[in-house]
Fold this protein.
Amino acid sequence: MQLIRDRRARRVNADPFRGIVHVDQSVCYDLLASLLVLYSPRMFPSFRHWSAAARKLMPADLWEEGRSFFQGQERCVGFGVVRMIPDLPHPSTPATLLSALRRADVTKTALYMLEGPGGLSSERLEAFEKLLAGGKTQARVRAAMRGLSPARKTRFEAVLKDPKGEKDRLVRFISGYLDLVFKREADRLAAPLREAAKLAHDTLAVLPSADAIERVTGGYTLSTELSLARIIVAPSAFLYPAVACRIDERKAEAFILYGVASPHIEGSDSSAALGGGVMIALRALSDPNRLQILRLVSERPRLTSELVAKLALSQPAVHHHIRELWAAELVRQERTRNGMLCAIREDGVRRVIGALSDLVDAEGAHRHAQAVVTTLRRGGRQESPRVQLR
């Protein structure tokens, strides 16, 4: 009997997350993720054609109202209500989310909006919670806002000043957007989301939880040192190839929303036919700061705070560069007690090198170079042969 208990203990120690990881499949995630795409098209270049078509369907006043909630990925407040989706009754629909949002507690909804996609420390959230409970003074508001960007301060002040009014305005905007734009997407997303959820379940069944999370998210995971009671992972076709993660220390919960490829979405952009993965990688490597980050993490895994110090860049700037490298599958990220740990993703680097090798006929390129050198030496002109693309 003792031997059986010892074996069970070893299994738990080997995978402390076993039994607490839940896969949540809902098109509601894509309802909110599509608004991130719509209002931050530069952050999601593969969706640029979809964004342009969707914007044409929206009246000017509806478009303008949505900007205050969703424009600017790190400072938008509307996306924060994504945290409500895991607790919706299943199967959940956008109408279910809107109904829950209308009934939701004003203070709780305001805190979700303040957290947004950029995340906030527990200390700052507690300060905001006290302000929402009453006793707002200019001094307390300034103290709670210290260190935030001007854009985030402006949007946070609106939520703190009139949390119920902002919640009602968000409901009206999402309702209008759903009717005019997103309803036509919901049915077409059902199949890829169902397949992604099945893959996540299957992967969790055969791999340790942290490894399975990294596999399905494409390079993002949680350190097993974290003390968590619940981990929610949810696929989103519109978030591809990004990931959004929140750690709620007070509830000991982690929420990971990760992008998955969708033929329907990819079909709206011609870049997929030209080797989208290579294009994303080349775009990521076109910035000298990202090359420096890649060099540093190739030496050893490094915390984001260390990269901020070494590059002398702001933390949001470093986060943006890391996001681009992660989307290109060149780095992996692991959330630890001390912060985000970044490391080189060797399989992704090899994949990019192999794709470039397949794309360009190396032998043909060599012949081309030799022909150019010979022509230059002779002082003559010669029409340059084209490098063969496979």
Residues 1-12, 267-274, 381-390 have pLDDT under 50 and may be disordered. The longest helix spans residues 163-206. Residues 200 and 347 are 20 Å apart (CA to CA).
